[in-house]
Design goal:
Strand order of the largest sheet: 4-3-2-1-5-6-7
Shape: globular
Low-confidence stretches: none
Radius of gyration: 15 Å
Number of helices: 7
Order of helices and strands: EHEHEHEHEHEHEH
Largest sheet: 7 strands, parallel
Strand content: 15-25%
């Protein structure tokens, strides 16, 4: 299975986020899955890729925009590098290659990627799901906002068909396996 991971490239996050990203990577590698991610050598991106490689697995696909290549920001953990022109191309490649997605703590790029997958699924272009791993309640305000959108009627399809909110590692791995 190819697991797309959307996450932060920041090196200024709580340590637990890096530990959990590494744990996810180790699980991906130990279970014979492939990581598909943005290819950066920073933040949670590097931690998840390092976790995969620590298991001895080479199954790390980095989908890397040209600007990161030009800035020498590509992780050494990448086994297969797919260069792209920009973030839009990166997102399209990740959506094409991945079977399921995990959204870890991240910023606007993570949200853009996750909601592109959800948007396509909501109109029937794909059937892929995004699992929001709610480490330390990181995504609580997002899900509160979505609940508000449901209450006002702007969300008119059941989002749980396209996205899931999990709080524990065990819930995450169960969702991936389903």
């Amino acid at each position: 299975m190819k697991i797309g991971v959307f996450c932060s490239s920041s090196d200024k996050l709580p340590e637990e986020y890096y530990n959990e990203a590494r744990r996810l990577g180790q699980w991906i590698g130990a279970n014979g899955h492939t990581l598909v991610y943005g290819g950066s050598r920073c933040g949670l991106m590097e931690a998840v890729a390092r976790g995969v490689r620590e298991t001895g697995s080479l199954n790390v696909i980095g989908v890397v925009p040209k600007i990161l290549i030009d800035r020498d920001m590509v992780s050494e953990q990448v086994g297969i590098k797919i260069p792209t022109e920009n973030l839009t191309d990166r997102k399209a490649w990740m959506m094409k290659l991945s079977d399921v997605f995990v959204a870890m703590p991240g910023s606007v790029g993570t949200l853009d990627e996750a909601f592109s997958v959800i948007g396509e699924a909501s109109i029937g272009i794909s059937v892929k799901q995004v699992i929001f791993w709610n480490v330390n309640g990181f995504w609580d305000s997002l899900f509160a906002m979505l609940d508000g959108m449901k209450q006002t009627g702007v969300v008119n399809k059941p989002l749980d068909k396209f996205m899931t909110n999990v709080s524990t590692f065990e819930e995450l791995t169960n969702e991936i396996n389903n």
